[in-house]
Each structure stands twice: as structure tokens, then as C-alpha cells.
Amino acid sequence: MRIAMIGTGYVGLVSGACFSDFGHHVTCVDKDAEKIAALRRGEIPIFEPGLDALVASNVKAGRLDFATDLAAPVAEADAVFIAVGTPSRRGDGHADLSYVYAAAREIAPALSGFTVVITKSTVPVGTGDEVERLIRETSPAADVEIASNPEFLREGAAIRDFKFPDRIVAGTSDERARKVIGDIYRPLSLNQAPLMFTARRTAELIKYAANAFLATKITFINEIADLAEKVGADVQHVARGIGLDNRIGTKFLHAGPGFGGSCFPKDTRALVKTALDHDVPLRIVEAVLAVNDNRKRAMARKVSGAIGSSLRGKTVAVLGLTFKPDTDDMREAPSIPLVTGLLDMGAKVRAHDPVGMEQARRELPDIEYCDDPYVCASGADALVIVTEWVQFRALDLDRIKREMAQPVIIDLRNVYRPEDMVALGFVYESVGRVPVRG
After folding, report:
1. From residue 230, how far is each of 235, 251, 434 by CA, in Å?
2. What percent of the chain has pLDDT above 90?
């Protein structure tokens, strides 16, 4: 199969590389000439484990290439995927679909022969209808079907998620389009990945509903964590106790500083706006957004409470800046309101992240960045673990204690055991567990 992938962001690049690894010929298209030139040199613009090697091997094999002009790749394609960004629109929280619609208008005149245009971007219900209208309006004679194929990739595990998916959702009622999509994903049949065909609008809603439900699980366990601290319970044991019920499951029940990233905040906001447009208020999802925003802002106060005095003039070391490990993505990361709050309280902040510091400097320019966690901890009055990078799970805690001005650790990811930290002489505070003092 010949595939044109419009957009070389996170979804487009990962999807294009994986499709080419299946044996399809894929051309990834982007208007950014510098980005395309860098990709042709083998420079990957995002951090995703294994992606650089996957891109390099398929470029070498001649199955993956890059272009700035979509005309030829679209004309040759059996399927054209739209994988452009849909950021939150400023002011109202709706998904900004301008890039999707611009791509549809540009694709239309280049279509040749029967082609399936597939929306891979995360879009509100009904977007596929508008994409179809735009394409048919621009090129009335085009032999085209419009489908939805939402992505369910986790940053940091995207390649495995693509190759070993829980499910593949394809929204189309056209038999020819079903055959094309089935052929594209046939290499996954050995993995017995369920390919679920449904109506286009249903596929669009599945994506938003899935993300909203996962965000709800995170927010629920975070509120239970707050209660656990007050009543002397351990939220990790609570999460395990309820997660062993297979109706609930163990995933996304890890208490922490709140969810961030490119998907959950944006998609839950867009789902709420879509529901309001149809006079169907989603009270649970609305509450999830409000609770999560408040939680992220409250983390700086948690640090202040652990120190037990004003933060003015104090030095706080922050380990982890990205919204999750194994990515350099800073979008809506909990570290941003945390650090901003610490600065507002008069603290001096220094930070370390294994791969995210270049991105972080754009969001947090007024702090000191350190290339090593021990340098970061040196002279600090408190150390905060914000992102659970594997590098932070095996710190030399004796050395950390020697480096710090005061042995105070606030572990927002519950990486360490309270009893171990007490034995080492730390003042240790985590999430959803009773604070302990050395």
C-alpha cells in the first residue's frame, strides 16, 4: 500500500514510521522545510524511545521518505492520513480544527483514483463530515471516502502501542474503505489486534470518551489520596485493593500531582465544549478538569508545608519536568504550575530532567537548570520528585542527603517507601500516605 501522512508531529511521525515498518511505502509531508530537511538527515524532532532507529531503518529500506509538497504523494496514495495538530483554541477550549480543514482543502485537488482520506488527528464528533464536505466541494469528481482512525498512543511507549494495540478503531460505512483500512492493518493480524469498524462519528467519540475516562480515573485516585492522608491510610494499598477488581483494573490509579500532556487536558476540554454545544452537560468530566487544575496549583503549597516555613530565600530542587517519563513533552506538565508557584512564594528553583530541559526552558526561563540530579540537590532546602523517570528510582540517597542543606524530600510520585526514608533521616512527604519525619 502507498500511504501519504500529512503532518510529522508526534502522531504523524510515529504512525508513518510504523506503517513503513509493516512494509507499506509511506511519505510523511510537512510544510516546515527545515523540519523535513532535518528528518532527511536522520534528526528526529521529538524524543520517543526507539523512533530514531525505526525511522533510519525504513528510510534506508526505501519504504519511508519525507516531502514538503503533498501533491505527488497524495496522487499516488491508496490512503491519505491527516495527522496534524488540533490544539485547544484560545478562549473557549474547543479543538482548533484549522489545520485539519486546511489539509483537507489541499489534499482534495491532488487526489487521483479511489483514495481513502483518514483522519488520524484527535477531532470532535462531526469533523469527518466537514472534511468530506470540504473535499467534495473542492474536487466534486474525486473518488474518495472519508474515514476516522483515532490513535491511542502513549508517549514513551508509542511504538509498542502501535504494533501491539488493544484495539484499532476505524470509522467508515463504506466497503471499499473498509478493505483499504483492513489491508493497511493486516500485518497486525498475527498479534490478534481487534479491528473494530463502526460509524465515523462513533469512532470520533470513542477517542474522546476513552481519554476522558482515563483522566477521570487519575483524578478519582488523586482525591482519594487526599482523603487517605487525612485519615491515616495508604493510597497505594487502596489503589491495589480496588484495582484487583477486574471491573476497575489497576491502570491509571497512581496518585500524583495531576495529569498533563498533549491529550488528556486538551481532549477533556474539547469533549465538554462539544457536549455543551449539544445541550448535554458532562458534569463528571467538568469536575475532572476543575479538580485537576486545582491540584496542580496546590503542589507548591504542599512543598511549603513540608519545609514548615516560608519559602522566601529557600532553594528547592526539582527532579523531573516533563509531564511523564520517556518523553520531552512539556505540554501542560504539572511541573509548570509547581515551579511557578514556588517562584511566586519567593523560592529559588533549580531543576533537572533527563531529556526535557531544552523544552522546559521555553516554559520556565527563570530557573537554574542542572545536568545532574546531585548538582541539582546541592545546597537545596527541599527536593521535589515530579516525574518518575527511572533515573530517579535509584538515587544514591545518602549522597543526596549529604548534598542538601536540609534533608526534606517531597515525592509527588511515591517512588520511595516512607519507612526507608525515615531510616535514612529524611523528612519525607509523598502523596496519599501519612507524612513521616526522621
Report:
1. 11, 24, 8
2. 95
CA distance 78 to 110: 12
CB atoms within 10 A of CB 401: 18
**Run of H or E residues at 374:** helix 373-377
pTM above 0.70, yes or no: yes
Determine the Cα–Cα distance for residues 166 and 175; give it in Å rounded to an integer: 24
Please give the single-letter amino acid code of residue 171: G
- Residue 287 and residue 289: Cα distance in Å, rounded? 5
Give, as one character, the DSSP assignment of residue 432: S
Q: Which amino acid is at 310?
A: S
Nearest-10 crossing angle of helices 335-344, 283-307:
50
Residues 64, 28 contacting (CB under 8 angstroms): yes
Q: Which residues pair with 27 in a beta bridge?
A: 4, 65
Delineate the domains of the chain, giving CATH numbers in brackets: 2-198 (3.40.50.720), 243-429 (3.40.50.720)
Number of alpha carbons in the 13 Å side-chain half-sphere of residue 160:
6
The one catalytic residue among 18, 28, 263, 370: 263
List residues bridging with 319 in a β-sheet. 352, 385
pLDDT in tens, 253-301: 999 999 999 899 999 999 999 999 999 999 999 999 999 999 999 999 9
391: DSSP letter: G
Q: Report the b/e string of 56-77 with b at 16+ CB within 10 A.
A: eebbeeebbbbbeebeebbbbb
Q: Is 28 a catalytic residue?
A: no
Q: Is the dihedral of CA 280, 281, 286, 287 positive or negative?
A: negative
